[in-house]
Amino acid sequence: MNKILLLTSDLNLKALVNLVLQYNFDIEIINKKSAATASDYVRKNHADIKCIIADEHFPAGGATKMAKETTAVESTIPVIALMDPFGKGSISKDQIVFSKVTKDTILEKLVEVVGEVCIKKTSQILQDEKHVPMKLELLLELDSVGQDCYIRLNEQKYVKILNKKEYFSKEDFDKYSAKGVIYFYVKLDDVDELLESFSGNLNTMLDLSMFSRPESLNKIRSKFSDEEDGAILDSIVDALNKADKNKLSYDEASHISSQSLSLIRKANHKFAQGSEVQNIAKATVLLSLSTISQAPELNNMFEKAVSSEDTYLNDHSVLLGSICCQIAGLLGWHSKLTHYKLMMAAMLHDITLDNSKLSRYRGVPDLMLDADQFNEGEIKSFLSHTERGKELIQSFRMIPPDTDLIISQHHERPDGTGFPLKINFSKISPLGSVFIVAHDLVSFIMSREKAEENKQKKTEWNMVSFLNQHRFLYQNGVFKDIFNVMWKHMVNKS
Ligand SMILES: [Fe+2]
Ligand SMILES: [Fe+2]
């Protein structure tokens, strides 16, 4: 079978290009993440390669290196360069590339360009196949594709392995790989929708990366006349520059993110529905995501729970983002898009509360015990903050799907006793479930200080006691899976 070599370390780009090509051409795609492994592949297999599609930016200079490699092996394999839409560097005219395609035009342009060197599938072939294959490893890397997924038993028989709303775990992957499954399939009827969502994901991540560019924050700098606010914006820009050079620490990112949340709350009052809130929110999410791999182990998070009454809302939101990503990781969900959804939801889930002290309460019953500390307006604001948080995120441009759902479900409970919808585990989304468990853990970790103030020392403040307290609540669905992986993680650590 003809082969196309794809070089990119950008997962969303890889997913989109794979689907576009598998849908239109009868080819095998060889995916490589680094220029070194791609070059090695070219040297050994150049006779079989129909064309090379290479990202020029991730890894840096990828397409340029591939063009040089083909020259070195004296091959005429065409190299198609995939370029960032906002002009970070360019390929000089004397570079031998067959064609350049900008990443935001892949859906329209790539088939045309590849069609010059590969023969397109006829519509009859497509109709006969009824399904489009993609490598199973891609499903693992993506966590979820938002469409029903199948494996093929024989020419006619396909079996569904994943519902559109479900997430694929490492355990699932291992199970199917052990049976020799290499491809998963999506139905031909679902392909258009899937292409839209893959290209949406790619553009969503490109949009987010725009906020690592200081210009996007400097543009709104003049709107913050208050010296302190301006200083926070400057420190976000500095931190993003440091992150770019891998010089930002987890603690520093957490500290600046926490300050940034105060600014977001202020900006939300001052410029409702303006671009200021989302610009700062996206920059803050990027900042927190940039150091996520340095976050302390879940067990050591107990040491991180230092907060004052005034900064509880900010501090618990930042800690929550980090814990959400760690729990998702334990489930085998590692994609940047998944982390983006969880981090953005964590930053904004309580931002619309009128009184930040309300962010300590998990439900209506525990708020009612302290009802005399709040006025009627504040209590109403608590009851509506999930809905208002959802509306805020929906007003943003290019936010990954389901982020609004995580925010709107964050006070639901697995047993249906939460609010506002009183839905139970069966209706709470997979990421919503991760978020609720992470939020319970953050509340547990941070309640230690309150308990110590009140001289209650009966509880052991560690993961085992948290899990034991929640064992009967997390009995079903994704909650059960989360409980199991956290328990296993604890056992493996002890
Ligand atoms: Fe909340
Ligand atoms: Fe919260």
CATH topology of the largest domain: Hypothetical protein af1432
Number of strands: 9
List SSEs in N-to-C order: EHEHEHEEHHEHEEHEHHHHHHHHHHHHH
Structural class: alpha/beta
What share of residues is helical?
40-55%
- What is the CATH class designation of the largest domain? Mainly Alpha
Structure description:
- By secondary structure, the protein is an alpha/beta fold.
- The chain folds into 2 domains: 3-203, Response regulator (Rossmann fold), CATH 3.40.50; 204-493, Hypothetical protein af1432 (Orthogonal Bundle), CATH 1.10.3210.
- The chain has helices spanning 11-24, 35-45, 62-72, 106-114, 123-129, 136-142, 170-178, 188-210, 214-218, 227-244, 250-270, 275-290, 312-330, 336-348, 364-369, 376-394, 403-408, 430-453, 463-470, 477-493; strands at 3-7, 28-32, 49-55, 79-83, 99-102, 131-135, 149-152, 158-162, 183-187.
- The protein has a 5-stranded parallel beta sheet, with helices on both faces.
- Helix 2 packs parallel to helix 3 (62-72).
- The N and C termini lie far apart (50 Å).
- The mean pLDDT is 90.
- Bound molecules: fe (ii) ion (2 copies).
- One fe (ii) ion binds next to loops.
